[in-house]
Write a structure and sequence with these properties.
Structural class: alpha+beta
Helix content: 40-55%
Radius of gyration: 27 Å
Number of strands: 3
Shape: elongated
Strand order of the largest sheet: 1-3-2
Length: 108
């Protein structure tokens, strides 16, 4: 066995990865040649963020929600006291479980 196959980089690096020192040498060489290296944006692995919508649109698409979900996804959220009244007037009812409070659509 040679030292290249026993180095920790050989074991830990993913297939196709470049050793950090090799990468540094490559970058220095390219910059000396007058070439620039631009970062390529990598798409996120997380799901795309929801687009903020109006309260009416958000509630129309759901049967159950929490105040936290409303605060996170709705634009121009009214103060909490007004929001609670709006939910009740729109046919939503507050329910509680052992883990927290949520709102359920009772009429549509």
């Amino acid at each position: 066995m040679n030292s290249a196959t026993t180095s920790p980089w050989h074991i830990a690096m993913p297939l196709g990865a470049v050793h950090p020192i090799t990468e540094e040498i490559r970058v220095d060489h390219l910059e000396r040649e007058g070439l620039r290296i631009e970062a390529v944006p990598v798409p996120s692995l997380s799901p795309p963020a929801l687009v903020a919508v109006t309260l009416a649109a958000f509630l129309a698409a759901r049967e159950r929600t929490t105040l936290a979900e409303i605060m996170q996804n709705v634009i121009d959220v009214p103060p909490e006291k007004e929001l609670l009244v709006m939910l009740k007037n729109a046919g939503w009812e507050s329910r509680r479980t052992a883990t927290g409070r949520f709102w359920v659509k009772t009429r549509g």
